[in-house]
């Protein structure tokens, strides 16, 4: 188990090895109870729609709905919350997660994007479809990624904890398809598991982090609990060179990016190649 020194989390050799072998790693107790509690008031203000968010950056990842009351969304999603609430920039969580990213992926990692994902209790439909993160992104020469997923609530099988397919990052990006009729209608992308593939559930406690790379297959089930929310706060790190390349092509990870850019992401290109 790693340790905290100030606003750095020191990753162990065993944790680094699991990240490389499995495509993800669970890091327990990265943030204290007090540090997580400081996040909650702003997080909940986002969930109530009290912080202005532009267009599709406040979005239901199940239905594709946006611009409406977010309190009824199945999977509440905010892209780039630091943009809309700048006071989060440079937070303890950001400092800890950045230190983790550089230990797992090397120096020169920078925050590419951040995201909020939440599921209300009693929402069995809040299923996050199987996908690889790289499928949502444009191709770059350096794909190294450390996506830090902070549990703001205990994340359990009942409320829709993360699931991973161990070692799946070793294969190329699979063909993905829009969950709706088109990418413009539904931002969410979907791929399929094969019958012989068996993912693992990864329940974690409030203040814990999972870190996954760009290629590991993952998803999550609905929140069938009677009263437990499942809130997560994501910071995703990539190399400075990769982020510059993305921005030069107009790719910012906002759901408001140009549809022509969003149509060129790796998962859709893999699907096109599979049908050629």
Write the layout of secondary structure elements.
Elements: E1 3-5, E2 8-10, H1 13-22, E3 24-27, H2 33-47, E4 58-60, E5 75-79, H3 81-84, H4 92-105, E6 109-119, E7 128-131, E8 145-151, E9 162-164, E10 177-178, E11 189-190, E12 200-202, E13 209-212, E14 218-220, E15 230-239, H5 240-248, H6 259-262, H7 266-275
Antiparallel strand pairs: 1-2, 3-13, 4-5, 5-6, 6-15, 7-14, 8-13, 8-15, 9-12, 9-14, 10-11
Briefly summarize what is shown.
The protein is of the alpha+beta class and 276 residues long. It has one domain: q2cbj1_9rhob like domain (Jelly Rolls, Sandwich).
Count of DSSP-assigned helices: 7
Largest beta sheet: what is the strand line-up?
3-13-8-15-6-5-4
Helix content: 10-25%
Distance between the termini: 47 Å
Task: State mean pLDDT (0 to 100 scale).
Answer: 97
User: Biggest sheet, open or closed, and with what strands and sense?
Assistant: 7 strands, antiparallel
CATH class: Mainly Beta
Structure summary, number of beta strands: 15
Rg, rounded, reads 17 Å
Per the CATH scheme, the topology name is Jelly Rolls
């Amino acid at each position: 188990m790693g340790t905290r020194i100030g606003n750095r989390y020191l990753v162990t050799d065993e944790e680094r090895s699991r990240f490389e072998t499995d495509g993800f790693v669970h890091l327990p107790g990265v943030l204290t109870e007090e540090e997580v509690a400081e996040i909650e008031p702003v997080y909940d203000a986002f969930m109530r729609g009290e912080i202005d968010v532009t267009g599709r950056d406040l979005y239901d990842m199940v239905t594709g709905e946006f611009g409406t009351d977010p309190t009824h969304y199945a999977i509440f999603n905010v892209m780039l919350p630091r943009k809309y609430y700048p006071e989060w920039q440079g937070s303890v969580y950001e400092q800890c997660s950045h230190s983790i990213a550089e230990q797992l992926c090397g120096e020169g990692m920078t925050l590419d994007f951040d995201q909020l994902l939440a599921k209300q209790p009693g929402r069995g439909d809040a299923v996050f479809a199987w996908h690889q993160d790289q499928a949502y992104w444009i191709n770059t020469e350096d794909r190294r990624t450390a996506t830090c997923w902070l549990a703001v609530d205990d994340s359990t099988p009942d409320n829709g904890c993360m699931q991973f397919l161990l070692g799946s990052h070793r294969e190329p990006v699979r063909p993905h398809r829009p969950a709706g009729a088109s990418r413009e209608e539904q931002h969410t992308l979907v791929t399929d598991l094969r019958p012989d593939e068996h993912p693992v559930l990864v329940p974690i406690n409030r203040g814990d982090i999972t870190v996954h790379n760009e290629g590991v297959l993952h998803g999550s089930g609905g929140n069938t609990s009677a009263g437990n929310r499942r809130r997560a706060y994501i910071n995703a790190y990539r190399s400075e060179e990769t982020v510059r390349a993305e921005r030069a092509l107009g790719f910012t990870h906002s759901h408001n990016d140009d549809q022509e850019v969003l149509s060129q992401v790796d998962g859709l290109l893999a699907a096109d190649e599979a049908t050629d």
